[in-house]
Write a structure and sequence with these properties.
Elements lengths: L12 H18 L7 H11 L3 H12 L3 H5 L4
Subcellular location: Nucleus
InterPro entries: KIX_dom_sf, Med15_N
Family: Belongs to the Mediator complex subunit 15 family.
């Protein structure tokens, strides 16, 4: 997952939108279906997270995509 940038960027609209796109890609490649949209999932995680690391750490858990797929979306 490519989410480089300063620690403060994780709250920006651009960073969050990039994550929404990456959630879509990771779920599609992993064959995982959800009744929530990727935007809803990102918003849920954003509300729970206090730091950038926690924000990124929660995505495999929330989406059901394995950490291996999540961390290597090109595969």
């Amino acid at each position: 997952m490519d989410v480089t940038g300063p620690e403060t960027d994780w709250r920006s609209t651009n960073f969050r939108q990039k994550l929404v796109s990456q959630i879509d890609d990771a779920m599609r490649k992993a064959g995982v279906a959800h009744n929530k949209s990727s935007k809803d999932m990102e918003s849920h995680v954003f509300m729970k997270a206090k730091t950038r690391v926690k924000h990124l750490y929660l995505f495999p858990e929330v989406t059901g995509v394995s950490k291996e797929v999540w961390n290597n979306p090109q595969k």
